Amino acid sequence: MTVETDVVIVGAGIAGLVVALEAVTAGARATVVESDDQIGGMLRRGRIAGVDIDLGAESFAKRTDAVPRLIADFALPLEVVAPRSGPAHLVSQHGVGLPGARWSRLPLPRRTVIGIPADPLAPDVVAIVGDRAAERAAAEVLDAPVDPTASLADVVEERLGEGLLRDLVDPLCRSIYSQPAAAVPLPRLHPKMWEAFERTGSLLAAAAEVAPNAPGGTAVGGIAGGMWRLADAVARVAAERGAVIRTGTAVGRVDPASGPGVAVTLADGETIRADHVVIATGPRGAANLLGRDSRAIDAGATAPIQPAVRLLTAAVTSDDLSAEPVGSGVIVAPGTCTAAKALTHIDAKWAWAREALPEGTHLVRLSARADDTAGLDSAAAVAREISHLTGTRVDRGDIGEVITTRWRDAVVPAESDSWTATVMDAAARGIHVTGAVAAGTGLASVIPHARALAHELFAVPSVRKES
């Protein structure tokens, strides 16, 4: 059986859903096919302790206005909210810490952008990186070349020094973008910061201009009730306007049609013919559909992309956690001997979660290390890790329900010329790529890219550039 439509969108994560919404709003016919039985992709809903929560992304960076603008443009019934707690903490083998301690646990600096400080000599920066590294950063090398293709690590090390890179910038880059600072350039990570850097010629001046002048956490926002509600609302409006959204539907291949357009063959043998196909999957899925080994995305890779994200969300009964000892959570620096690379105290971070939970119950999320296979494999291990990272006493008996979520195609590798050429060649044949693999990590990048692609394909009137 062959079905005809204007566009087939492979993947019902937020990028694919946004393309579908823009397409049907412009009068096009759109069909979304999703192999999973749920929509949302990384905006996935779960339920624990009687509360609907995020099992994927639980916040968005405010470096662009992409999320609130999408909500406003389509009158989505959602409320953007700010974190309610104090700054997150950084656990590291460096820093002032406590005498004899295995690591330090210190609040993240008040004013930084991906760890680049507005003031390197601020006490909260010095506490983490030390006097020598702070003084080196303050003596920024201003005459170094401005290379947009250089990695964030190269730029920061050359201008601000290795200490700041190691102790602050790289840990935050790994936490926020799931990539080391050596793997990605600043323009891709933070366009607004790059624009300020180009204009001022100084990383410190750019950070002073861009960094929020407020306690940690204000650089991100959330949705009341959870980020999963954003995908749910976009899908609902898209369907109301005529989009067909099919879950549990795997795609076998994407080929040029015998006539004009592109043919999408589903795993059950059904064919959908369309003028355009938009691939909005993870990197492995995108590479496979474009007929490339997943290593094509990263020319320097020696093996296919591996599953790299495992999250454990636990309901915890603990009086000590009620004091919110680490604010919204903990980021763990590379090289620190812990089983988790991050911890989020969900109800400390979001008021809606605190209000929904029973008194004395907390929700804590741990992000396992990519190479961890057994470090967080029991309730006792989860309790031990929460105790280590927060400095509180949490016992095995305090751990209630635990939900483990594995993202097998989530981490986006660095760009490569080979992958860029593959994407450009596919676009010439009516096959387009969006999502994090094309736009970079984070809703602040993914949503504008998806909207711009839809505007290009369906002649949607141009809109002002996200800022």
UniProtKB/TrEMBL annotation:
<dbReference type="InterPro" id="IPR002937">
    <property type="entry name" value="Amino_oxidase"/>
</dbReference>
<keyword id="KW-0560">Oxidoreductase</keyword>
<protein>
    <submittedName>
        <fullName>Oxygen-dependent protoporphyrinogen oxidase</fullName>
        <ecNumber>1.3.3.15</ecNumber>
        <ecNumber>1.3.3.4</ecNumber>
    </submittedName>
</protein>
<dbReference type="InterPro" id="IPR050464">
    <property type="entry name" value="Zeta_carotene_desat/Oxidored"/>
</dbReference>
<dbReference type="Pfam" id="PF01593">
    <property type="entry name" value="Amino_oxidase"/>
</dbReference>
<dbReference type="InterPro" id="IPR036188">
    <property type="entry name" value="FAD/NAD-bd_sf"/>
</dbReference>
<feature type="domain" description="Amine oxidase">
    <location>
        <begin position="14"/>
        <end position="299"/>
    </location>
</feature>
<dbReference type="GO" id="GO:0004729">
    <property type="term" value="F:oxygen-dependent protoporphyrinogen oxidase activity"/>
</dbReference>
